[in-house]
Amino acid sequence: MKTLTSGEIAKYCDVNLRTVIRWIDSGRLKGYKLPGGGNNRVKEEDFLAFLQDNELPIPADFQSKETRVLIVDDELQVAKAISRVTTRAGFKSVIATDPFMAGALLTSFKPQLMTLDLSMPGVNGYDIVKFARHDYDDKSLKILIISALGEEQRQQALDLGADMSLPKPFSNKELLNTIESLLVK
Amino acid sequence: MKTLTSGEIAKYCDVNLRTVIRWIDSGRLKGYKLPGGGNNRVKEEDFLAFLQDNELPIPADFQSKETRVLIVDDELQVAKAISRVTTRAGFKSVIATDPFMAGALLTSFKPQLMTLDLSMPGVNGYDIVKFARHDYDDKSLKILIISALGEEQRQQALDLGADMSLPKPFSNKELLNTIESLLVK
DNA sequence: ACCATTTATGACTAAAATGACAAATAGGAC
DNA sequence: GTCCTATTTGTCATTTTAGTCATAAATGGT
Q: How does pLDDT run across A18-71, given as a tens digit for each residue?
């Protein structure tokens, strides 16, 4: 859990330290005091809530950083190829070559986009889509199906909640266009 | 009885180690010194009391009282049998029947104990142990291998970082004893 | 016994809290 | 616009608390 000092907040808000302390004392900004002699600390989440409530500009440090992409493909070559494209496009990319890693990275890395190979041995890609849509809390996650399987199978994944599908093989340009169309905000 | 070092407390409170030592020296935070050269230890209960007394935020690790158990087994019957035992013993139990769920639940449910079936089709249990020990941040996670495979395979998992192993089939009593021995604080 | 990591300590520097007071700002009334 | 007033914010000096650094010691693991 990250916390901020009154001085840090003063810099972020471009106000005097004295003012921040008064905000905290008056309860406008939620904080707590260290045992020592009462130095203030504010939880990052409370600070962000404070900024939002008062419609203050959000400092760059707290802007949601780079867009994250999780690449799920058991063929490392393919995964790396995708990763090159996404990384070059400015996304932070992580590769999962087995379903366990995929699950672990989905809930810890929290990507905005997941590319998913449907035809992984021993894995049911449909179940992954189902999980992401039913048991996973970030509904804004974009799922891009990448598969050598036929149109029918890819459509089935879309029906389950995937956002788009791309047949293998694909060109880098196709891939990039598809991803960027999914990630427009 | 679980104890904390000054460094751990520093991290939990997001404060410098030096400051924690001063809190202890001044008596604000109750602790005791090891015989060696005076390294500090603080009882978990004293730390929690300290947090409460000073209205400090309680770290996530100390939030939920209940101990969480993740059961990874593709055979739902077996998983449910384990779940019955752990639930009855007072643990909060969750079942993952495929590796993707297992990964997702490990990093979101954040169990203190994971039971792991080595012989799941299409999944390499060893990779899961490796992931948990190398790429997962909670090193205090206990891993209990449950497998019908031979002693040798189970030993291999232990070598990779699992904490204990139990051959299939097992009695409820064996299971419970093993789990509780892993979770003693 | 050895090593890497963590912790303790003192001295010092940096940062924060506080009160009193000055300056700036916002909103009304004219 | 000007004047007035209430509220908020900034400044300053001082005291207290927290962080940094270097070094020595202890701890944990192999």
A: 999 999 998 889 999 998 777 999 999 899 989 888 888 888 888 777 899 999
Domain coordinates of chain A in residue numbers?
3-57, 68-183
Q: How far is the CA of A133 from the C1' of C18 (A)?
A: 54
Nearest Cα residue in chain B from A109: B107
Q: How far is the CA of A105 from the C1' of D15 (A)?
A: 50
> Is the four-CA dihedral B172, B175, B179, B182 of positive or negative sign?
positive
Asked if A100 and B102 come within 8 Å (Cβ–Cβ), the reply is yes
Nearest to B96 by CA among A105, A152, A122, A135: A135
d(CA A69, CA A167): 19
pLDDT one-digit tens code per residue, B15-54: 999 999 999 998 899 989 887 777 899 999 899 999 988 9
> How near does any CA of chain B get to the CA of A53, in Å?
21
Give the predicted TM-score (pTM) of the model.
Answer: 0.71
Closest Cβ opposite residue A36 in set B23, B98, B135: B23
Q: Token pair of B149, please?
A: 């495979």
**B118 in reach of chain A (CB within 8 A):** no
Q: Do residues B42 and B51 make contact, with C-beta atoms less than 8 angstroms apart?
A: no
Q: Is it true that domain A68-183 has CATH number 3.40.50.300?
A: no
CATH architecture of the domain formed by B3-57: Orthogonal Bundle (1.10)
